[in-house]
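Suppose a colleague, Dr. K., hands you the sequence of a protein chain of 294 amino acids and asks what its three-dimensional shape might be. Before reaching for any lab equipment, you can write down a predicted structure in token form. Begin with the sequence itself:
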Amino acid sequence: MDFVANLMDLNVDAAEWGAAREAEGWDVVGVADHLRTGLRAYPHMWVTATALALGTQKVKITTTFANNLFRSPAEFAQGALALQKLSNGRFEAGLGAGWARDELVDTGREYPPPGERVERYVEACQIVRSIMATGSSHHDGTWYQMNIDELGPLTDSPPPLVGSLGGPRMMREAAPLLDIIELKAATAATREGALDVAKLVAIPSSRLDEMVAQVREHNADAQLALFVLCGTTDDPRAKGVADMAPDDSLYGPFFGEPHQVLDAVAALEDRGITRVTISPFNLSAFEAIAEARR
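The predicted structure, expressed as tokens, is then:
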């Protein structure tokens, strides 16, 4: 099982934070791409990912996930190639379709309907794959038109493309384009453009098995991952979330004692998940979960 530590805190030194996670034995360190959500303000994705790369030596670096509604796919591909070179081949290019409404509306941008977000994302993945492989993209789509002959820096080993997929259409059209697929089992909790924790813990455990089966119809080989929003018992919010969860909750077991969280994560491997993105309410959970792994 690969463990991804997901940085979502604005008030830490990213290089020191990454070095601490590397020393604890995390497999990947990443940074989320938001301006702010209802929970918090976030660090800048590219600046922070660069600091993570410079502050570490061996751990992989990823973006969890670059927001396709913020960024041109050409700019994302260029940044991914630059970080692949800077990190000596340790970067994983995480690109997401975008889901948080308020940060778009509050900065004067439109929040597209679901079908448009899917279409934009699929086209963006096609463009990114082309640029990362060849430095070029000649794309005439519904949402993007590209006529790029040279973009870099190119590398003999382009970064793997990582995506977060939710509904059936997204799986059908985007899954074949990805090397690592994070299953967005929490789609029902973010459908209105903001995270609803009560809806999150109401998602049944069976939803994950349904999604694994669906995505394997379209990509038999990609590594499968799960975003794990969690909390350990030194944060009082963790107990409140756990108390809301029904017995068959997918996410409920990820709130509790560190060993309980770790056991719930380990159980995912038997269901086809070999990578988890750990995103806790409380920063202290990273150290606690790492300690429980030892």
